[in-house]
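Quick one before lunch.
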Amino acid sequence: MDKKRIYLSCPTMHGEEQKFVQEAFDTNWVAPLGPNVNALEKEMAAYTGAGYASALSAGTAAIHLALKLLGIGEGDVVFVSSLTFSATCNPIAYEKATPVFIDSEADTWNMSPVALKKAFEKYPNPKAVVLVHLYGTPAKIDEILEICKEHHVPLIEDAAESLSSTYKGKHTGTFGKMGIYSFNGNKIITTSGGGMLVSDEEELTKKATFLATQARDAARHYQHSNIGYNYRMSNVTAGIGRGQLLHIEEHKALKKKIYEQYKEAFADIEALTMNPLNPHGDANCWLSCVTIKEGCKVTPNQIMDALEAENIESRPIWKPMHLQPVFADCDFVTEKEFKSDLPAGCEPESISEDIFNRGHCLPSDIKNTKEDMDLIIGIIRKLFDK
Ligand SMILES: *Cc1c(COP(=O)(O)O)cnc(C)c1O
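Model of the pyridoxal-5'-phosphate complex:
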C-alpha cells in the first residue's frame, strides 16, 4: 500500500535518547545496572513526586513484584479493574491468587467505587486492590482510597497508561502503597520496553530491586533465601528513558491537543461522545476514544474498517477481563443490574461491557499532522453523515 501509515500511538524520539545510550556504550555500561538506571529512577521519582523508584524490564514485571511485596499468594483474593489490558491481572494469576473483577463507572470508565464497596461486602478480606487509570484518565482516587483505608487493604495503582496525569495536582501512581508505570512502545514515553515501580516506602522499592536481580543475599558466594526474578531494566534501555523523560510534558500537551481536536470536530455529531475525563484531574489523554450512542447504526467496527482502508490504525476498547475465556471462572462485581433501552437479549450486562460494545480508540499518535487529523476526522464524519 502506498498510503502513509497513520498510527494509534507509537514511539516519538528526540535525539537526547541517543546521547544517553552513547554514554552507556562509551563507558561500557551496556550490561544491566549502571548510571542511567540509577539516574532514571531518581528522575522518575522527582518527576512524579513518588519517594522512590525501581526500574524494571516491564510494567507487567512491576505489577508482579508489587503483588509479591504484599505477600500475595495462592487463594488470596485481589480486587482489580475489569476494563483493562490483560497485563494488569495476569500477575495475579502468576501467583495463583484469585482476581475478582470490578466493573467501571460511567463517569471516568475506571473502577466504580460503588461496585468496590459491594465487592467488600461479598469478600471482606481481599489482599489488595489493583486500580487502573484507563487511557490516561485518573480514577475516582479519593473515593477508592477511602474504601481501601476503611478496610485496611493496600492499593496498587496501575498507571501504565497514565504517566504524567495528575489528580488534584498529584501524579497518578503516587496515591497507593505502590504504583507502576510502563515504558512500552505505545505508551506516552517509551524505552522500547520497560517499567517502573514507585512507592513512598524505600523499603519496598529496595526489595523490588532485590527480587528483580535474582534475590541474591548479601554474601560473597551466591546465596539465595528467596526466589528471585530477572526483571531489572538495562542501562541502555534506561538511557532511552532519560532522553524521553525530558519531553514528557510536551508529549502530554500534544496528546491533549489531539483529544481537543477530536472533541471539537465531533461536537455537532449527536451520536458521538469522547471518552470522559475526570474534573479533578489533568489527564494525559494517552488514547482518545469515542463511544457511539445506543441505537445508532454505525458500529465501532465500521469506524475501524473505514480507517484501515486508508491505512490508518485504530483499536477496539480493551475487552473487559471478566468476559475473557481465560478468566471465565472468576467473579465480577458491578454497581447494579445494568439497564439500557436495547431489546432484551441484546443488553450489555455491565458498564464495562457497554463501553466495550460502543467504544473505539482513535489514532492518537503525537506525530500526526493537521492533515492526518483532518483525514481521520473526515473519514469518521462521513460515516455519521449518511
Ligand atoms: C501497557 C500496560 C501494562 C503493561 O505494561 P508493559 O510494560 O507492557 O508490561 C499494564 N497495564 C496497562 C493498563 C497497560 O496499558
